[in-house]
Amino acid sequence: MNIIKKVCAQPKKLSGIPLNILEAYVFWQSNSRHIPKMLRYSMGVRIDSIFAEIIETIYLAIFADSEKKIILIDKANTKNDLLKFMLYALFELKGLKEDAFYEISLKMEEIGRRLYGWRNQTEHQNQNGSAKVAEPFGKNKK
Q1: Buried b (16+ CB within 10 A) or exposed e, 45-60
Q2: How is the chain classified by DSSP, letter by letter?
Q3: Distance of alpha carbon 19 from alpha carbon 60, whole angstroms
């Protein structure tokens, strides 16, 4: 009897901004179940939606041409700022514990810094007419 082996492509390991946003989202998901029910089904759902929008926008920017890339990075950065505000509002409403709020805030601040750097790098390369494309992925140093 012939046994057919399934050949599955190994997923790429993430680095840089995609890894940062994934880590923040996983942290959010692990803490969202501790949010009081009324807040979880109102603000919690909206925060989850904003996370999804940021992830989508980052991936669209990765594959966009250089002109659209800056627009998409700006959109992701604006959504990131909105997310930070919504998390702060949830914290003020006693929906998030202080340690959870502090940790996710640090993650979102790092994402904002990286998005800003990616935007500046892309803009600089556009001005110089550089053929090299700015990517949000960190360089793996060995």
Answers
A1: eebeebbebbbebbbb
A2: ---PPP--PPPPPP-HHHHHHHHHHHHHHHHHTTS-HHHIIIIIHHHHHHHHHHHHHHHHHHHS-HHHHHHHHHHHHHHHHHHHHHHHHHHHTT-S-HHHHHHHHHHHHHHHHHHHHHHHHHHHHHHHT-SSPP-SSPP---
A3: 15
Give the tokens for residue 11.
């997923």
Q: Taking each helix axis from N to C terminus, what angle separates 45-63 and 66-92, rounded to the nearest 10 degrees?
A: 160
**Domains and their CATH numbers in the chain:** 16-127 (1.20.1440.60)
Instruction: Write out pLDDT tens, residues 104-136.
Output: 999 999 999 999 999 999 999 888 875 555 566
pLDDT digits (tens, 9 = 90+) for 65-99: 988 999 999 999 999 999 999 999 999 999 999 99
* Tokens standing for residue 104: 């996710």
Integer CA distances (angstroms), 94 to 46, 88, 90, 101, in order: 16, 10, 6, 10
